[in-house]
Amino acid sequence: MFILEIKGIKKTYYQGEESIVVLEDLYLNLSMGESVAIVGKSGSGKSTLLNIIAGLDKFDSGQIVWKGKIRREDPASLTLWRRRNVGIVFQFYHLLPELSVVENVALPLLLIGMDRKSAYKKALLLLKDFGMGAFADREIRYLSGGEMQRVAILRAVVHRPSLILADEPTGSLDPYLQERVLDFLLRACSVGGAGLVLATHSKEIAMRMDRVVELRDGKLRPIMLK
Ligand SMILES: Nc1ncnc2c1ncn2[C@@H]1O[C@H](COP(=O)(O)OP(=O)(O)O)[C@@H](O)[C@H]1O
Ligand SMILES: [Mg+2]
116 C-alpha to center of ligand 2: Å? Predict the structure, then answer.
């Protein structure tokens, strides 16, 4: 069974008189534990698609099916669905700059109702696991881009979501950390059973996913990279 089915999505952006169709009759199926890379030129709609899957952006027509049921698209249902099921690594991190590292990582746990003490404990364990224990109490605004990126990745997985969405998740990392982060995300798939949809410019990163699709002219097409 698929955890996620995107069926015939269309998305138009309007700016004044102008309109551009970014996604048109787009389909994508994702199984449990499966990882998919979305590649495509800048401006092809990768971030738009991830935002739509995350329920952060509306679409014109089509359906999103979650674990066999049509997803409810009203804001309140989407918020609950997202908190419970989704981890998102945004391209520009979207961390809360005034909060500490451990507070940022613990946030998804607090949002699903875990008590503060358990949430911080769990977040701290994850940080230590990832060699970032020393950063726990530091405020986000004092971190480097690469450090923020790793915090964003830990925040996206701390609540063990069934779906991980990642938008250029390793852009600020050196090759060593890039590999570690990819290993980490792929382990969430193979061990945790999460589905992963990852947008990237990098062929090297894309090739580490189970399959690669290219976003072009509003549609996804399977491609083989070699
Ligand atoms: N909020 C918006 N309003 C109008 N146009 C937008 C908006 N967001 C994105 N676009 C346009 O939609 C297209 C796809 O953007 P995006 O999804 O960010 O592409 P990618 O992530 O592949 O670079 C681009 O042409 C972009 O300018
Ligand atoms: Mg983008």
Answer: 34
Residue 74: CB atoms within 10 A of its CB come to 8
Which ligand gives the minimal distance to the CA of 218?
1
Ligand 1 near 13 CB (within 6 A): yes
Residue closest via CA to ligand 1's atom 16 equals 45
Does residue 15 contact residue 66 with C-beta atoms inside 8 Å?
A: no
Looking at the CA of residue 215, tell me the nearest atom of ligand 1.
22
Beta strands, E only, the chain:
2-15, 18-31, 35-39, 61-66, 69-70, 86-89, 163-167, 195-199, 211-216, 219-222
CA distance 148 to 61: 35
pLDDT in tens, 168-209: 998 889 999 999 999 999 999 999 999 999 999 899 999 999
Least distant ligand from the CA of 46: 1
Q: Which domains does the chain have, with CATH numbers?
A: 30-57+72-222 (3.40.50.300)
